[in-house]
Amino acid sequence: MNSPTAGQAGPAGGREDPEPARSGWASWPGAPAAGTRICAGADLVEGATLGVAPGGFPLLLVRQQGRVRAYVNACPHQYLPLDYRGGRVLSADGTLLRCTSHGAGFSVDTGEGVEGHGIGSCLEPVPVEEVGSEIRIAGRR
Predict the structure, then answer these.
(1) Which residues are CB-neighbours of 78 under 8 A, at least 6 positions away?
(2) What's the rounded mean pLDDT across residues 96-111?
(3) Which of 70, 93, 116, 130 has the most beta carbons within 10 angstroms of its beta carbon?
(4) Is 0.70 surpassed by the pTM of this model?
């Protein structure tokens, strides 16, 4: 499951109106618009993750081999933030994002669930771009 269905809690924690399932991170309540500044590029170091919440919308960023990726910071297993219990989210070899609550493992490159409670699900990717010294939501403004 990639996004909450009607009546499930979304990343902001509130209940959605009873309506057909939503698809795509941009349709979630509070999703930031294209061009929204997420953080300074220097805040996200190589080989690390960074949890941020522009406008209250939870994102998890990771920088690997100079490339920045972002996912909605909500494990599809129970919609808890991947870093809910603190500690290291990125695996030692840099290939997996691991939920700190139940150990679900997701590919850094694709968000696909590859271990534990992550199997059969996927993190919701969010398009980002590094513009000058800032990381922003990608797309037209």
Answers:
(1) 101, 102
(2) 96
(3) 70
(4) yes
